[in-house]
Every structure is written in structure tokens, then in C-alpha cells.
Design goal:
2 copies of one chain form a homodimer. The first copy, chain A, is 48% helix and 11% strand. The first copy, chain A, is an alpha/beta fold. Chain A has a 9-stranded mixed beta sheet with strand order 3-2-1-4-5-6-7-8-9, with helices on both faces. Chains A, B: Its cofactor is Mg(2+).
Chain lengths: 371, 371
Amino acid sequence: MLIKHGINSGFGAIYMLASSPVLRRQQFLIRCLGDYSDQNTNTHQKRMQGIKFTSGASLEADAENVLRAITPTLDPNRHKGQAGKIAVIGGCREYTGAPYFAAISALKIGADLSHVFCTKDAAAVIKSYSPELIVHPVLEESYGVRDDEKRIISGKVLAEVAKWMERFDCLVIGPGLGRDPFLLDCVSKIIKLARQSNVPIVIDGDGLFLVTNSLDLISGYPLAVLTPNVNEYKRLVQKVLSCEVNDEEAHEQLLSLAKRIGGVTMLRKGKSDFISDVKSVSIYGSPRRCGGQGDILSGSVAVFLSWARHAIRDGDSSISSKNPAMLGSIAGSALMRKAASLAFDNKKRSTLTTDIIEYLGRSLEDICPVR
Amino acid sequence: MLIKHGINSGFGAIYMLASSPVLRRQQFLIRCLGDYSDQNTNTHQKRMQGIKFTSGASLEADAENVLRAITPTLDPNRHKGQAGKIAVIGGCREYTGAPYFAAISALKIGADLSHVFCTKDAAAVIKSYSPELIVHPVLEESYGVRDDEKRIISGKVLAEVAKWMERFDCLVIGPGLGRDPFLLDCVSKIIKLARQSNVPIVIDGDGLFLVTNSLDLISGYPLAVLTPNVNEYKRLVQKVLSCEVNDEEAHEQLLSLAKRIGGVTMLRKGKSDFISDVKSVSIYGSPRRCGGQGDILSGSVAVFLSWARHAIRDGDSSISSKNPAMLGSIAGSALMRKAASLAFDNKKRSTLTTDIIEYLGRSLEDICPVR
């Protein structure tokens, strides 16, 4: 059940002290027993004791312990919103499934509120998928806007998003966004606004198309995570490094890419997920490649990034020096892969994204029980 | 399984005679046996015998007994509508989930008919969530109405609602209403109409935003229940009492607030639900704070308030001197908390509002079996 990562230096590196796989497994089991045997003590504090962060080289990390470290305990004294408020920017005339998958995944993991900002055409459809989402029909595509109106409409779109921005713990930008130039221009302004407000952003899908052509939008922003698939990664490498993808030196190239873009966290999706600063999240997973799995991942990373940030703000000493974007990427990748694996065990070739989403809750509960 | 309330004087206070928890529990079990051992007698009358209402101080009430007292027996001689006709006023371009949750919850508890009055944009979406609801696309937001049309449109909206008003047993005003000034102006008129018709109203969400700024709308109306969450309560306290929330004297402040507004019942949601006249409904519940739970509560209170009113009208001597708004609030809070608890046991962190709604029926059946 261990998810292993080779480690490089960077924002922070996660290491386990034990070097033998058998010993590590034993220690892991002991930690699990220690964490949950006493139901009446502060389980979160106990979870933290299980994670050994130290400096060193070529050791391994335990993604499950990262999940335990950043997932908040459920406290009845808390009120709506305190477990996370996520917003997805995406959904247009053509695409409605992707933003739904990202937004509902955030709720299924444990966020309290999940919003979608999309075009009018997309809104009614996304709303109809689930009454749990708050869907704002505010984006506009070129076909509905005259040239002489563009400045005013763009201002209105930005104002609609701006009035909510401070409330969000993380944005997911890109699922089902499409490539309409006017819409992407508005989204560029939304990204700038998020940066000004210090709101973390996860960029996927057509959001990656946008930032690949406008790297300044995210360059130097440590609260940005980019989650490219094979094709999106290829375009990024070509654009930023002016070369082709080199799978023999995959991790080095990923680090170069993150460095050249400037301070962002890269999560390259594939057979194993490669994360800058952490070599890979490689176990669990499913051989099924149905569309939409990347959207689950983006929503998951958004929740865990938010939770990691809160845990660090709360003064959690074991992760205080860590980059929340990196912790969120590890946790999101591990949970998504575990849920995909469980769904595939059950549904085999007919596994769809909706099936995987239904396993997010159980997957997190297996790793990090609420009590 | 007992839900306990400390009691203050007010419209009416519910007391159990027994003071020892063990003795109370025994009496409760004896009552249960007494209620349901003879299946062929009038079970409703027998249920009522179990509840001891008397005056006194610092005693406790049993919310489950309130539920039993006001829930009508299912009599095959009754016809459609007699178990309750609820209407939700809410649903706009931005919000569609909230009115759906309130309206479907009313049906799942046992109301016969559940209506929603919303904007045209929201209507098709809310209809698509469920064929069980009757959805009227009659409300209008400012963006669709010219200034010179407002008086006529406002009159039409009111006429559309007015022709149904006498048929409703309770209105829920606010879930997903939004804050459009023209729409809120129309809703103010709907509230006035409900008062004229003596139709009870439960006010939540943006309905609370409206009445906080126009207290006259509900002041002095004993058939109004206000169900504020932490932020809505804060705004009410600031506006009405010109001070901040004082959690050390929470119940006294709640009573002051209800008194200053004038004769309404307050249900302050939180870790425990505080109800004016009754100290708190504090057991059951879930630590999950996903958006939408308040909408279930508002729909639940609406049904139980209606049922309590009918039970009192039918001459039920054990509750004849009680305030139906208070009884409905106790019952709605207790049932919602029980359903949330059962859903959380099953779904843990991934519990969504839809999951809780699915447990409303079982929760009521556990407390108050149909035979």
C-alpha cells in the first residue's frame, strides 16, 4: 500500500528513515495501529507523528502519510465552508462533463462547497448533473459578443468572479474551458486576479493551452500546480525548453521545465504520475483511460492543496517547511489512483469516470478514517 | 436516543416529569411498547398519552416524542394533500440546488405535494432534478425586467403565487433565492400575502437577508420560523440587538432576539441547534458541513410545523397550548440531525446533502413507525 517516490531537493523533500522495504512496511503498520487505536485522543496530532521528514538523498516518501497529515479532522464546532471552498473555471457550449467531474470530486473528497463558473450554455446542463454544485453562468464566448461590447462584457465577467474570489481556497482552471479567444482572454484576467488574492490555482486541460502560450500568467507563482497529460506536456516542453520530451531523463526534464516556468509545481500524468520535487506516484491506478480522469485529479489536488495550506498555517511543525502545492499534488495523485484502481477492480473495461468518483470517499476513508 | 432540551418559559414549554435519565429511558421504552403493541387501535391517540407536558423549570423534553405527537397516522380514508402541501419560494439564475433540497425533503418526510416558485432560468433545471416536484417559473430578476415594466410584472408575479396561497400549509422562503432587488421586492409582497392568509413561513438563506433588512415583514407573526446559520445569525444580532454574538449567554441572546423581532420562533443552527423557548437539540448530527443541509432543515420544519398545526386543530389536548412553530422546529431539527448522522455513518467525508435526504424516511420510521 506504500506509494513510493524518489526524492529530489526543491521546495521540500519527504523522507522516511527506514531503508528496508520490510522494515518500512512494519513501521507503517505500527504507525497505523498507533494512529487509530486510541479513539479518544487527537487523531490528527497522532497521525503527524507517523511522518518522518528529514533531509537526505534517494529515500522514499509515503503518500498515504501525506494524505493523513493534511486531511483535517472533522470537528463538530466547525461551520460550513471551513473544510474547503473550491471553484472550477470551465464549461462552455461544447464541454460540460469535465467541470462537473472536477467540482463533484472536490465535494466527494470532503470540501464543503464547490462552485463552477462557466458559460450560459453550459450552466443549465452542469446544474442538472447535480444539485450539490453552485453553478454561475457568467463566462462568454466570442459568438455571443460583438467586438464593440468586448471590453464591457470582459469587465462584467471579471466582476462576477471577483466578488467571490476572496472566499475560495483554490481555483481549478481549465476543465472543459474550450479555446475561444475571448473566453480565454477573460480567464487570463481571472488568473491574474487569483494571484493578486493569493488564491492557489490548479491548471488543467484548456487552461494549459492558455498558459503554455502565456507563461507569464503563472511564472513565479508558487501556489500554481500544472497537471499536463502526455500531449499537454509535449506542448509545454516544446514551448518552454525548445526540445522534445525525453523519457529517459524524465524527472530531470520535469524539474527543468518547472524551473524554467518559474516556481510552479508540475504534476505530469501517465502510467506513473511524476511530480516535480518528488519523483513519482506510481502504484494503484487503472489501465482504463476513459476521458475525465484528469478532471477528478484536478479537483482532488485543489482540495488537498487547500487542506495542506491550512495545516501549515495551523502551525503543523512536521510539514511547516513544505510546499502545499507539492503536498496537494502527492495526495491528489495517490487518492485518484487508488479510487481508479478500486473502480477498475469492480467495473473492468466498463469503468467510467463517474464510477471512479464514487470510490473517492471510500479510498480516503481506507487511508484516513474519520475516527 | 433521547434528545434533551433545557427549557425556558415562552409560548410553551415541554417537560418530562421524570428527572432521572434511567427512569426516563424506562418510561420511554414503556411508552414505545404501549404505543405499538396493539396494532389495531388508534396508534396516534396512544402515542399522545406518552407525552407529559407540564409547567416547571430546568426539566427536559423528548424531541422524539414531539415527532411522534405531531406526525399524523396514515389513514387510507385521507386524500391527496391532507398530509401537507408545501411551497418553496426560491431558485434563481445562480442557485437551483437549494430549493430542490428543501422541496424534495418535504416530500421524503411525508408531505403529499411540494411546489417550487422560482425564476424561469431555474425552473427547467429544478424540474430536471425530480419529476416529483411542481415547479412554477414565475419569479423575475431585474436583468429581465425594464424599469417601466416593474409594477406590472410585480403584480403578475404576486397574482401567480396568490392563486395558490390558500392551498399551502406552509411556505419556505429563501433557499437559493439570491439577492436581486426586484426579486426580493416581489418576495416581500409574497410574505405579506402569506401573513394575510395565516400561512406559516419558514425563512432561511437569502430570505433571512431580506427580513434582516425589513424586520416588519415578520415582526409579530407567531407562525414564522427563522433558521439562521452562524453568519446569518451574526447579521441578525448586529441588526436587531446592535451588538455582537455572545456565545456565553447564547440562549438568553436568542430569546432577546426573538422577543425584539416580535413573537417569531428562532432556530439557530450549529453544533447544537438552539431554539427559542427550548434550549437546544444537540444529539445526533454529523461533523460534515457540506452546503445544502440547511435546506433540508427548512423543508423539514415546514412539514412538521404544518403537522403540528393540524394536530392542535384536531384538538389534541396534550399539545393544544403549544406553539406549532416551536414544535415544528424541534421535530425538524431532530429528524435532520438523525438523518445526517446515519448518512455520515455510511458515507463519512464524502457525505453529500443528497445522501442525507435519502435517510429522512428511515429516520422518521425509526422514531415513528407507520404501524
